[in-house]
C-alpha cells in the first residue's frame, strides 16, 4: 500500500473550492512533484497532508493511518511529516542551532546533548556547521532555506513536504537548495514537492502531477508529462513555461 | 519673582523637606516594583486568554475583554477609593484588614493590567501566523508554540511600549496617596500644610523626573536600536 493515499479530497475556503476530488498515491521512497500555476492548489494539498488545513471531504491515509477522521493525534502525525515553506519561516529569535534543536528537545524529548549532536550533524551535512550560533537574519536566503530543511529533518520524518522552497530565492542561490533535495531523494526520503522548477522536477520525480484549478488534471512519469502530455491544459501550461524559458 | 522662588524653590525648605519626601518616595518605588511585577505576569496571562482559539474558550475571552474594557475606562483614583476604602468597609476576614500599601498595589495592578494586556496582545498579534504554523508543523502543541515561539517574539517587540506604561505607572503611584499611603506626594502635602511652603512638592517632582529620565532614554535607545537592525536586514 502506498505511503500517502488521498481519496477524493475536497477543500474549500468559503465559496472557493481550492481542491476538488483530488486522489493521489505516493509510494514509500518515491518523490512526487506537483506542478501547476500559482493558486492551482499545490500548497493547500501539501498542507492538508499534515493537517495544517482541514479537508472538507474525502480521506487521507498516511503510513497506514487515516488522518481525516478527527481522531488522530495531530502532533504525533506532524512529528513524522516534515514541511518546508517558501518563506523559510525560521524562528528569528533563535540561533540556527536553536532552530534545529527546538523540535527534537520539546517534541522528541531528546536531552540537550543528544539534540545538539543531531543538529550539529545535520548542519554539517547541509554545509552550514559554522553558522550554528548565528541568527537567521545573518544568513542568505539559500542558507536559511537549508536550515529550514535541517530543522524539519531533525525530527527524523518519514515524509517531507516541500512547498515551493526555491520560489523566494535569488536564482544563484537555488542550486544549493536543490542539491540538498537531490541528496535527500537519493537517501530514499519520501517527498512531495510543489515546485516551479520544471527541469528539477523532471530530474528527481518518480511521478509528476499537474494541478489546474484544484484538480489533478494529469499525472504520470516525468518523461510522459514533460515530453508527451495528453491533456490540452497540461500542454498549454508547459508551453507557457517553455516560452518563459523555464524548461 | 522672589515670592515664587521662596514658595516653590526655597533651598532651605528643600533641605528640610527632603528626608520625609525621600522616605515617601521609597514607598513609591516599592509600590511601583511590586505592582509592575504583578502587572507583567497577570497581563500576559490575560493577553494569552484573549487569544485562545476555539468556541469553547469564548466565555474566557469575553471575561478578559470585559475586564480590560472596564479597567481601562475607570479612572485610577476611583479604583483606589473603592479598593482602599471599600474593601476595609466590607469587614471580610483576610481582605479587610490589609495595609494601605497593599490596597494601593491592588488598585494600581488592576488598572495597569488592563493597559498592559492590550500591549501584549498587540505584540502577540504582530507575530506572523506563519511562525505559529512552522512551530505546529514540527509537532509542537498550541501551548509549546506559544511558549517557545510566539510569546518570546511578542515580548521582545513590545518592550518599548511596556516601558512607556511603566513610566505611567511610576507617576501614578502618587495617586494612591488619596487612600493614605504615606508616599512622596502625601509627605509633600504634609510639609506644605505645616510650613505653608510648597518647595516639598518640587522635591517630589525632582525625584520623579530623575527616575523617569533614564527609563525614557533607555526606551528611545531600544527603539533606535531596533530601527537600525530592521533597516540592516531589509537591505
How would you sum up this structure, described in words?
The complex is a heterodimer of chains A (247) and B (235). Chain A has nine helices and ten strands. Chain A is an alpha/beta fold. Chain A has a six-stranded mixed sheet, with helices on both faces. Chain A has a four-stranded antiparallel sheet with strand order 2-1-4-5, covered by helices on one side. In chain A, a hairpin with a 2-residue loop joins strand 4 (57-62) and strand 5 (65-66). The two termini of chain A are 33 Å apart. In chain A, 46% of the residues are buried. Chain B has 235 residues and is mostly helical. Chain B has a single domain, classed as MetI-like fold. Chain B is built from nine helices and no strands. Chain B has helices spanning 2-8, 11-50, 58-73, 76-90, 100-126, 129-137, 142-172, 184-195, 199-234. In chain B, helix 3 packs across helix 5 (100-126), helix 5 (100-126) crosses helix 7 (142-172) and helix 7 packs antiparallel against helix 9 (199-234). The longest helix of chain B has 40 residues, at 11-50. The mean pLDDT of chain B is 92. Chain A binds chain B through residues 50, 52, 75-76, 78-79, 81-83, 85, 87, 89-93, 102-103, 106-107, 137, 151-152, 155, and chain B through 130-131, 133-141, 144, 148-149, 152-153, 156, 233.
- What shape does the CA trace of chain B take? flat
Q: Give the amount of beta strand of chain A, in percent.
A: 15-25%
Counting structural domains of chain A, the number is 1
Q: Quick one: how many beta strands of chain A?
A: 10
Amino acid at each position: 500500500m502506498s505511503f500517502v493515499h488521498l481519496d477524493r479530497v475536497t477543500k474549500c475556503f468559503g465559496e472557493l473550492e481550492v481542491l476538488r476530488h483530488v486522489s493521489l498515491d505516493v509510494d514509500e521512497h518515491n518523490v512526487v512533484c506537483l506542478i501547476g500555476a500559482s493558486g492551482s492548489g499545490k500548497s493547500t494539498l501539501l498542507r492538508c497532508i499534515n493537517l495544517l488545513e482541514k479537508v472538507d471531504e474525502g480521506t487521507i491515509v498516511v503510513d497506514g493511518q487515516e488522518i481525516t477522521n478527527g481522531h488522530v493525534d495531530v502532533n504525533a502525525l506532524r512529528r513524522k511529516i516534515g514541511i518546508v515553506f517558501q518563506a523559510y519561516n525560521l524562528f528569528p529569535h533563535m540561533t540556527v542551532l536553536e532552530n534545529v534543536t527546538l523540535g527534537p528537545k520539546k517534541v522528541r524529548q531528546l536531552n540537550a546533548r543528544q539534540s545538539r549532536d543531531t543538529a550539529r550533524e545535520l548542519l554539517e551535512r547541509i554545509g552550514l556547521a559554522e553558522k550554528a550560533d548565528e541568527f537567521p537574519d545573518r544568513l542568505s536566503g539559500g542558507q536559511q532555506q537549508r536550515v529550514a530543511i535541517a530543522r524539519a529533518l531533525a525530527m527524523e520524518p518519514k515524509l517531507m513536504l516541500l512547498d515551493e522552497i526555491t520560489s523566494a530565492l535569488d536564482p544563484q542561490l537555488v542550486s544549493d537548495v536543490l542539491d540538498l533535495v537531490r541528496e535527500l531523494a537519493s537517501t530514499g526520503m519520501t517527498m512531495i514537492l510543489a515546485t516551479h522548477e520544471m527541469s528539477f522536477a523532471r530530474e528527481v520525480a518518480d511521478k509528476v502531477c499537474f494541478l489546474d484549478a484544484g484538480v489533478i488534471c494529469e499525472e504520470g512519469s516525468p518523461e510522459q508529462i514533460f515530453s508527451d502530455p495528453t491533456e490540452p491544459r497540461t500542454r498549454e501550461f508547459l508551453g507557457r513555461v517553455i516560452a518563459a524559458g523555464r524548461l | 519673582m522672589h515670592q515664587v522662588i521662596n514658595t516653590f524653590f526655597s533651598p532651605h525648605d528643600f533641605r528640610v523637606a527632603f528626608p520625609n519626601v525621600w522616605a515617601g518616595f521609597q514607598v513609591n518605588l516599592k509600590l511601583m516594583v511590586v505592582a509592575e511585577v504583578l502587572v507583567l505576569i497577570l497581563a500576559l496571562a490575560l493577553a494569552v486568554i484573549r487569544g485562545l482559539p476555539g468556541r469553547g474558550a469564548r466565555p474566557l475571552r469575553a471575561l478578559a475583554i470585559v475586564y480590560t474594557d472596564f479597567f481601562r475606562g475607570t479612572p485610577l483614583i476611583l479604583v483606589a477609593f473603592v479598593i482602599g476604602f471599600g474593601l476595609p468597609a466590607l469587614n471580610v476576614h483576610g481582605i479587610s484588614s490589609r495595609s494601605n500599601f497593599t490596597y494601593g498595589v491592588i488598585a494600581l495592578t488592576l488598572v495597569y493590567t488592563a493597559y498592559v494586556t492590550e500591549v501584549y496582545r498587540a505584540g502577540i498579534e504582530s507575530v506572523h501566523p506563519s511562525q505559529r504554523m512552522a512551530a505546529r508543523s514540527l509537532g509542537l502543541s498550541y501551548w509549546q508554540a506559544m511558549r517557545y515561539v510566539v510569546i518570546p517574539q511578542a515580548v521582545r517587540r513590545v518592550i518599548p511600549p511596556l516601558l512607556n506604561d511603566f513610566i505611567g505607572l511610576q507617576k501614578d503611584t502618587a495617586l494612591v496617596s488619596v487612600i493614605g499611603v504615606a508616599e512622596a506626594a502625601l509627605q509633600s502635602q504634609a510639609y506644605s500644610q505645616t510650613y505653608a511652603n510648597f518647595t516639598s512638592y518640587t522635591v517630589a517632582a525632582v525625584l520623579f523626573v530623575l527616575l523617569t529620565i533614564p527609563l525614557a532614554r533607555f526606551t528611545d535607545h531600544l527603539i533606535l536600536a531596533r530601527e537600525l537592525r530592521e533597516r540592516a536586514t531589509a537591505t
